[in-house]
Amino acid sequence: MALPEEVIMTDSGNDSESGNSSSAGGNASSPFLSGSSGLTTGGRLAKLLAREQELIAALEQLTREIKQLEQAEHTSEQEDESKPAEDENADEDEDDLEEFEAPEWCIPIKANVMTYEWDSLAAECQFDVILMDPPWQLATHAPTRGVAIAYQQLPDVCIEELPVPKLSSDGFIFIWVINNKYAKAFDLMRKWGYRYVDDITWVKQTVNRRMAKGHGYYLQHAKETCLVGKKGNDPPGCRHSIGSDVIFSERRGQSQKPEELYELIEELVPNGRYIEIFGRKNNLRDYWVTVGNEL
């Protein structure tokens, strides 16, 4: 049976409206099909990409700053290593001075050895043994092989001018020497009236009694040498063929020499008159005169 024309038109209108409504609803729930929603997503992506570039730039800047800090720290460490030991250990030295007690019968003379009144001392006493550890001037004032200098170095000509001959008419001289000053040390002996008679080798050891190697240009150094000279007659009570010309002893502080050398000297010339030039507070010893500007 045929439907009335009004019903047919009404149903068609409803279907059309229903279809439009579904289409609109579908478009609303699917932003990827919407032109305006697509622009929003693209903007967010652009912002994220821009933020990524900012973070990358910040990370690169932080990396550069870290490298700069590491380089600055490395440079500071190198500068600290090249500083004189007296600057590095100033506080420790002050503490040591507070705790240090000089031996009861030592005779310390704090003075500049270049300007000290040696004539007055020589007039009062002629010494049987002279010991010195000259502050030899190295080839460079800025050593780069780990050598730390804790004292003022002196040119050879200044050491030559010391009035050593006035201090002794008969006796021995002991001179600590570094590798490139052997010839100069022999010249000094002759100039001061001494002849070379012996030498003593100090083999440095660690606290574990192993060889303590130090820095050297070609070979690592594990020893120091003390040359022995003699002038005139034997001092009173001088003994012969004693001790040993090799000392095995633990390495000590900056430029500090082994105690065994002093014992050897006192065994060689018992109850003698001893003087040490360029001495330090750690060199002070009973019945010794010690002259130096670091006492």
How far is it from the N-terminal to the C-terminal residue, by CA?
A: 135 Å
Kindly report the spatial arrangement of strands forming the biggest sheet. Answer: 1-8-7-2-3-5-4-6
Q: Would you report the number of β strands?
A: 8
- Overall form: elongated
H/E element order:
HHHHEHEHEHEEEHEE
Strand content: 15-25%
Largest sheet: 8 strands, mixed
- Summing up helix and strand content along with how strands pair, one would put the structural category as alpha/beta
Calculate the mean pLDDT score and round it: 80
Low-confidence stretches: 1-37, 80-92, 141-150
Rg is 43 Å
Portion of residues in helices? Answer: 40-55%
The protein's oligomeric status is single chain
Written description of the protein model:
The chain is an alpha/beta fold and 295 residues long. It has eight helices and eight strands, in the order H-H-H-H-E-H-E-H-E-H-E-E-E-H-E-E. It has helices spanning 5-28, 35-82, 85-88, 90-99, 118-124, 156-160, 182-191, 259-268; strands at residues 107-110, 129-132, 171-177, 195-205, 223-231, 246-250, 274-277, 288-292. An eight-stranded mixed β-sheet has the order 1-8-7-2-3-5-4-6. Strand 2, helix 6 and strand 3 (171-177) form a beta-alpha-beta unit. The longest helix is centred in the N-terminal third of the chain and has 48 residues, at 35-82. The protein is elongated and about 110 Å long. 19% of the residues are buried. The model is unreliable at 1-37, 80-92 and 141-150 (pLDDT under 50).
